[in-house]
Write a structure and sequence with these properties.
The protein is α+β, with helices and mostly antiparallel strands and 349 residues long. Among the domains are: 138-249, Immunoglobulin-like, CATH 2.60.40; 258-345, Sandwich (Immunoglobulin-like). The protein is 40% helix and 19% strand. The chain has 8 helices and 14 strands. The protein has helices at residues 15-37, 51-85, 97-130, 238-249, 258-269, 272-275, 309-317, 335-345; strands spanning 2-3, 12-13, 138-145, 148-152, 159-161, 163-167, 172-178, 183-187, 191-196, 202-206, 212-218, 230-236, 299-300, 305-306. A 5-stranded mixed beta sheet has the order 5-4-3-7-10, with no helix packed on it. A 5-stranded mixed beta sheet has the order 6-12-11-8-9. The radius of gyration is 29 Å and the shape is elongated.
Length: 349
């Protein structure tokens, strides 16, 4: 549709036509982004793989459906009001009794019913999350650091990083805390999010119904590399878990090959031992991940890289290339000494 301008020229877009196109473009872009977001195969609490996450899923759906219905009703009424306002009406008119009842119903009664229902549902979820199906036999301590996870198994010497091994089909007690700043522990398919606060130990339980690998994430902004502070929960058959735990409790083997001995000495003679521990050696650092069985892990750098000898060498040489701002400094070794160091670390399984 067009109209004449002040000079009598045609083909001047009407205001309605010119303003509708940006709106339609924006709406289309939002729809495309929403569809693309749904295509990614990422962990979701809507696909629970354990009773903890399963107890939260109905609450999420209730909140989504209720909020959607309320939004649709509100915007529909708003649209009706805007259409009616275009008609000529007296500036002031007395409010009818029906209008007063409508306001009371929609402004007080309906919100009260929704909130009370939500409270009862939340109390039920909290009760479920507070009471595991059975008493956990496995206790694991998880500490959040900037930007990695320390995992200890009390009663054993087993220490690992950035992955939590658990027996499948059994509840496991987690004692979570933080060493520096507030972190957030969340494994969407197994348990809702909980904050990890320095100086405070919170206890939760998780359970994976079946063996598998479940990705978790820090959910509390903790600094530059917060986004790349992920972890893996690896659920194993109980017998496999027991064997893994026994192997992790063993100290690192003493190298007999001269090259590996040189690599171990390079580790102990440089700054590595001030941050990292290798059980069975004099390295007892605590501010970085324990490396006693580093090559048995799935990832490096809190799920930043897949664990391989090549990635281990690249990460050790310059971790800031992959995770800028990480606390670990770049190392400065001669080429032969560095090759021996990587060869030694590659034996720590």
């Amino acid at each position: 549709m067009s109209r004449r301008d002040t000079r009598g020229n045609r083909n001047v877009p009407s205001p309605r036509h010119s303003t509708s196109r940006p709106f339609l473009r924006a709406a289309g872009l939002i729809a495309v982004l929403a569809l693309l977001a749904g295509c990614e195969n990422s962990p979701s609490s809507l696909t629970p793989k354990g009773p903890g996450a399963a107890s939260v899923t109905p609450l999420w759906w209730f909140m989504l459906i209720t909020a959607t219905l309320v939004a649709v009703i509100v915007f529909s009424l708003l649209g009706m009001a805007l259409l009616r306002s275009r008609q000529e009406q007296p500036a002031e008119r007395p409010m009818k009794m029906d209008s007063q009842r409508f306001i009371l119903l929609c402004g007080a009664v309906v919100p009260a019913v929704i909130l009370v229902t939500l409270i009862f549902l939340m109390l039920g979820v909290m009760a479920d999350l507070d009471n595991p199906p059975e008493e956990p036999n496995t206790v694991i301590e998880v500490t959040g650091w900037m930007w990695w996870w320390e995992v200890r198994y009390p009663g054993t010497d087993a220490v690992t990083a950035n992955e939590i091994h658990i027996p499948a089909g059994e509840p496991v007690e987690l004692r979570v805390t933080a060493a520096d700043v507030i972190h957030g522990f969340w494994v969407p398919e197994l348990h809702p999010q909980i904050n990890m606060t320095p100086g405070i130990i919170d206890t939760i339980w998780i359970q994976a119904d079946e063996p598998g690998i479940y990705r978790g994430q820090c959910t509390e902004f903790c600094g530059l590399q917060h986004t790349f502070m992920a972890l893996l929960v690896i659920a194993q058959e109980p017998d496999e878990f027991d064997a893994w735990l026994a192997a992790q409790a063993e100290p690192a083997p003493e190298p007999s090959d001269p090259v590996l001995q040189r690599g171990q000495q390079a580790f102990l003679d440089n700054q590595c031992l001030f941050c990292h521990a290798i059980r069975g050696t004099s390295a007892v650092g605590e501010v970085g991940p324990d490396l006693t069985h580093v090559m048995s892990r799935e990832t490096l750098g809190a799920a930043t890289l897949d664990n391989s000898v090549g990635n281990l060498a690249a990460w050790t040489a310059n971790p800031h290339e992959f995770k800028p701002g990480v606390k670990m400094p770049a190392v400065n070794f001669e080429s032969e000494e560095f090759a021996a160091l990587i060869a030694y670390l590659a034996t720590l399984e």
